Structure formats: structure tokens, C-alpha cells
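Hi F.,

I've been meaning to write this up properly since the lab meeting, where we talked about keeping a consistent format for the predictions we share between groups. The idea is simple: the sequence comes first, exactly as it goes in, then the C-alpha cells exactly as they come out, then a line or two of notes. No screenshots and no reformatting. I'm using this chain as the first example so we have something concrete to point to.
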Amino acid sequence: MRRATPTRGAPRLPRPASAGEVTPPIRRRKLCDEIAERLMARIRDGALAPGEPLPSERELMDLYGVGRPSVREALQALEHAGIVEISHGERARVAVPSAEALVAQVARGAHHLLRVQPETLPHVRDARVLLEVGTARRAAERATPDDVRALRARLDAQRVVRERQDAFVAADMAFHRELARISGNPIFPALVEALFDWARTEYRALVRAPGAEALTLEEHGRLVAAIEAGDADAAEAAMRAHLTRSDARYGARPLASPRRTPGRPAPRRTTR
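Output, unedited:
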């Protein structure tokens, strides 16, 4: 008996799954995810430019045939991702990209990470040393007389508030941010501020130690002198000593113990 020939153009039936083959289930997407993806596509295609307002909630409801809650969830998701900006009483706008906005978005997740896993703080310290040692070198290579005057002004402002801890910490951060600005990379100041802020809790404990403010000011003075002289090696060494001296002078502070599985021994602590 001859085998029947399939009709040309007839739809081909899907191949049945073989024994043992695992096929992932088709996930049902939320309406808000679909709306957010469609808006993202319009932004990527240039139909919605940075700074331009999005359609109103009512227009989006009519355009996509959905309810207001789904539209608001989609806009909130895009806001959390740093794609749009939402102000009370105004239409959402496409966010204008900036280094500060990008780093701030990452910072929110980093703060949560440090709260949940405080044992990651040494990694933050290491990242800060690596970044700021490099910015100090570059600042010494590129600083103009105006840059040096601006950095000295930051140092003078920090001296004025040395007896007020919160103001002293803020002035310290401003000094490091100014130094990063001199490096010429617009991303570095935002990163320096974020790393400084992530380690702020530990820093506050260190500046309470007797003589810590004076030592910080002295080390900042060495940094300014090296940058003014254009001595990149000296600036790099001064920054490294400034950021790592806390371990040598005060000893490594114990971090909060990470959560561990019952029955497992606690991890051994090591000091750098």
C-alpha cells in the first residue's frame, strides 16, 4: 500500500516530545510587563526621546486596552529601572541618562546587599581603594591651578567643621568627589560618592577615634601637595596610605556575622 502524500501547503503538526525530553512551560506575562516592554521599545526606537513626556495614563489605557493599575505598575517599574521619571501631578518623562542616575540605581541594590550580607563590606573597601588610587594618579597628571584651588577650598571647608562629625563626614566625601572630578572622567565622582556612602557606617566609627580628624586632614593635605606638584607616584601612594591606614591604626573591625546553615561551623575570620 502506498503511503499517502501530505497535501502541499498543509500546516505541519508539531513534533511530539520524545521520552525524557523536558519542555519549559509557557509563562503567562503580567499586563504591566507587556506595557513596560512596549514603552521601552518606543524609547529604544527614538519615538520617545530623553526628557520627552510619555502619553498620559488615560492615553496609555486606551492605546493598550488595559486598566489604570496595570499602566501605573508599568510606569513604576520603569521608574525603578531609571528609564522614566515620575513627578506628582505631571506626566511621566523619559529620564535623561547620567552617570549619577546610573550609579544611584546600582547604589540602592548595594545598600540592600550590605544590610543582608554585611560580610561583603571588605569587598567594597577593596573596590574603593582600587578606584581612588587611580583617580589620585590621574588628578596629579591633569590638575590645573584652578583645580588645585578648588581642592584646597574643599580641604579648608573640612577643617572648619572638624568638631562636627556629620558635617566632617560630608566634607570628607566632598573632598574625595572633587578629587575624582579633577581626573576628568564624569563617572568617577558618582562612583566615589557611592562607595564612600556604602562604607559610611564603618567610617563614622573610625572618625570617633581620638585624633582621627586631625590625621584625615593631614593625609588630605599630603594629597593636595602631591597633586599640586604633579607627582603622580606620590599622589597614588598618599591615597593608598589614606584609605588603608584604618586597618593598621585601628585594627580591622569585626563585621556582623553572616547567616549560616544550622549544623555548619562558622567561617573562620581573617584579617588583611
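Notes:
The chain is about 60% helix and 0% strand.
The longest helix spans residues 121-142.

If this format works for you, I'll send the rest the same way.

G.
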